[in-house]
Amino acid sequence: MIKIIISDTAYENDIYPIVKAFYPEEDIKMSEMSDEIRDYNDNDNNYTGNKAAAVNTIRIGFKSDRANIEIIDTAGERHISTIDTPNPIKDKQAYKNTVKRKLYHMLSSLSDKELPWGILTGIRPTKLVYEMLENGLDEDEIYERMEKEYLCSKDKTETSIIIAKREIEILNGMDYRNGYSLYIGIPFCPSTCLYCSFTSYSIEKYANLVEDYLDALEKEIRYGSTCFPDKKLSAVYLGGGTPTTLSAKQLDRLLGLIKDFYDFSYVKEFCVEAGRPDSITKEKLEVMKRHGVNRISVNPQTMQQRTLDLIGRKHTVSQINDAFHMARDVGYENINMDIIIGLLGETPLDVKDTLNKIKMLNPDSLTVHTLAIKRAARLNIDKENYKGLRAKNVSRMLQITKEYAKDNGYLPYYLYRQKNMADNLENIGYARHGKEGIYNILIMEEKQTILALGAGAMSKFIFHNMNKIERVDNVKAPQDYISRIDEMISRKKEFLIKNPRI
User: Fold this and answer.
1) Could you count the other beta carbons within 10 Å of the beta carbon of residue 122?
2) 151 phi, psi to nearest 5 deg
3) Which residues, including other chains, have CB under 8 Å from residue 98's CB and lie 6 or more apart?
4) 2-111 and 174-491: same fold?
5) CATH for 174-491?
6) What is the pLDDT of residues 238-253, one digit of tens each?
7) Could you report the per-residue pLDDT of 254-297, keeping only the tens digit for each?
8) Per-residue exposure over 31-55, b if at least 16 CB sit within 10 Å of its own CB, e if not
9) For residue 32, what is the enclosing H or E element?
10) Is 192 exposed, middle or buried (0-12, 13-18, 19+ CB in 10 A)?
11) SS3 445
């Protein structure tokens, strides 16, 4: 365990992720110090201790013009530094970044490791580059700033620039400021994967709730159609969970409701996360096609059968192939496939084999997720049972996917990160031209209001003129959503009454 003791808990969310990124396998305990760490003089400053030294305790004292950092390794050696900082009242972000850079350098020296994203620990690192491009910075200026301010690697900056330029090109082709997108969550899955912490419930166990859930959702869908009479609907996304766990009849009802109550005149994308191949049938695909769904995702996660069995995906590689070909036969011309790198027991050779098998299917886009083990996932709760199966060399796996994408005509178009990702990496979407997931760009770059309906859904309201984002969430459990549907509607209604000009 690593103990982090800080003088101001307001900086907890800045310090914890950096330490966790360097020591992902360690449990970390945060606490507030009762007394200040003393200042160190120039002779005290020393953070070039033993390479790959294990850290025991980190103490950080925050002051108005400096910060004091003390790291004690497991051998009892102290590594200390005092740094001059900008005034946090005048420029809090510059103050935080100064402290984070110093902590990074100390931990990098002790662990003999570098992080590809430097001190960037947020979900949307490409958003920084997007804003730099919008503000007129050229590429050289962006490289310099990303390296100097954030210690970001040249490779990650290059990827961010490519993605941001592509996003700007796509978004400039639509009136996203005067539009909104619609997200509808279906919180049911055929089974819960070992690594999953999303709002999803086994369809076998909760089948008796589905009709009541759809009744509640219908009520929210009807209300949602009244929220933005002066905005154009840009994209519709059904996620979860796995929307195709619904029967063909239930899907027909749901998609019909959406088409009846919302104006699709300006909709550029109607996407359904078909996801699990064992939930896909020809009848369901035909229902979705009939209602105008023009993008779906068939997600293998891996094409290694032993891994599928281990992580709780109750389907075969053959079913993945069958579902994909079935979707093509029905007429889908924009099919995404997801894979996860860093899955238990997998090697770079397994990832190569998975990509070779996906190449035979030739999807229109490929989304590469790096495994992130969330606190609520069974893989984390029962982690002692899986210690010997952790994947190794995940960075090489990501490089293999990058090379595959380039060799097969896919370009990166969106990127995001999560906490506790293997090797401090990222999730990245690749697509051929014209096949990008528009909703993915809108939600990642936070450029458009997202009206989110269903259990676990979170609406995101964008105030363009104020550079502000407000969120309104729904309860996660289907039972709570059903019983409290009027409250979920009231939350949005009250917010919109208070903010009529959104």
Assistant:
1) 12
2) 60, 30
3) 67, 83, 85, 86
4) no
5) 3.80.30.20
6) 998 899 999 999 999 9
7) 999 999 999 999 999 999 999 889 999 999 999 999 999 999 99
8) eeeeeebeebeeeeeebebeeebeb
9) strand 28-32
10) middle
11) coil
Residue 176 is which amino acid?
A: Y
Overall average pLDDT of the 110-124 stretch: 93
Token couple for 229: 């009479």
How far is the C-alpha of 274 from the C-alpha of 329, rounded, in Å? Answer: 16
Determine the pLDDT at residue 33. 79
Which of 414, 399, 413 has its CA nearest to residue 355? 399
Residue 258, token pair as written in the block: 């959406």
Q: Tokens 């984390």 map to which residue?
A: 380
Q: Domain map of the chain by residue range? A: 2-111, 125-170, 174-491
d(CA 133, CA 139): 8
- Cα(9)–Cα(11) distance, rounded to whole angstroms? 5
The total of other beta-carbon atoms located within 10 Å of residue 301's CB is: 23
Contacts of 433 (CB under 8 A, 6+ apart): 411
The answer to whether the beta carbons of residues 427 and 117 sit under 8 Å apart is no
Burial class (CB in 10 A: 0-12, 13-18, 19+), 360: exposed
* pLDDT tens, residue by residue, 320-355: 999 999 999 999 999 999 999 999 889 999 999 999
DSSP conformation class of 53: P
Give the separation between CA 247 and CA 367, rounded to whole angstroms: 26
3-state secondary structure of 367: strand
Q: Could you tell me which CATH number the domain at 2-111 has? A: 3.30.160
- Range list of H helices, 64-209: 92-111, 125-134, 139-150, 154-171, 203-206
Q: How far is CA 119 from the centre of its chain?
A: 18
Residue-level pLDDT at 332: 98
As a whole number of angstroms, the distance between CA 192 and CA 313 comes to 8
pTM of the model: 0.90
> Cα separation of 411 and 414, whole Å?
10
Q: Give the three-class secondary structure for 24.
A: coil
